[in-house]
Batch of 2 targets.
Target 1
Amino acid sequence: MKLRFLAIVALAFVSTLAQAQSKPEDMIRMRQGGMNLLSRNVSALNAMSKGDVPYNKDVAMQKAEFVNMLASEIFAAGFGPGSDKGLPTRAKPSIWTEGDSFKAGQEKLLAALKKVQAGAGDLAALKTAMGDVGGTCKGCHDNYRDSSYH
């Protein structure tokens, strides 16, 4: 129940900022906060899939649903025009200059997260799906995230 509430609050936050896209700073803040939430929830699913924490079917299914909704919102609203400047960010300029390639990476991640959601109810399926997510995240981060940012 607590996870569901947090998911609703987080999505309301993301949706509100997404609608207030008039300022690049708002998009950057939304993107950074959303990516932080996404990372924490994907990491929790990954820990379950590896056996680092006990697998809990209900929690895995809730987190998988949440990361799908969150990723969709982040990609729909977090990388809009002008959001490459305005606040310190890890996003490389190539996101905006290589838009088609970046968009393809987003679609690949969204497809991988759909597999996580479909497999979250079974530990073996979750393990397989999380492997795809890790590789997809790494590929995009290697190309589009500035690792020197602190």
Target 2
Amino acid sequence: MTARPLLGIVLGAGRGRRLGGPKAPRLLGQRSYLAHAVAALRDAGITSIRVVVADARHVIDVDDVEVRIHPAPEKGQTSSLRIALSGGLGDVAGFALHTADHPLARASDVRTLLDVFAQRAEHERIVVPSVAHRRGHPALFAAALAEEFLALGDDEPAHRVVRRDPERVRHVVLENPWLVRDIDTPEDHAAAERALSDGDQPTSRT
């Protein structure tokens, strides 16, 4: 459809109360959650990446990204997304929305989504991964949908935009269970560590 690039957005301002602290700087293997999420996008070919965190000190091992600080992360993920989208996207076809609490997404997963986005029908504005009939992250959106997200209130979940018109959503069946599994608890983190130690690396970058 278009050769214009996509902007990568990674939301990492969550306080991680059930996990014992902020997720973005927490190490999973040798890298932070945020670094894993950024690498999945970057290794797939997305070169411009914008991250939202609660504190600049949480960006501990990520370079060449635009950092935006959320002064009130307790307002929730939708407010983080509005911060990411404010001020415009630039000359891009759309944006890939990822979250730091899905650090085991693979670059190969993202490449598949990008290929589908590039070849989607004109009416399809949203491309989402689907694992066992569940939608996951990252999800890809046409640039025009930014205004719909910006219009949401803090108490309105972002999935309202996805659910607004099923005809404009393209589901891509993938097999990686971590695309639909948030890491919210110490037990989740331990399972993710086991996945890494078993060789289930999310990206090709070392």
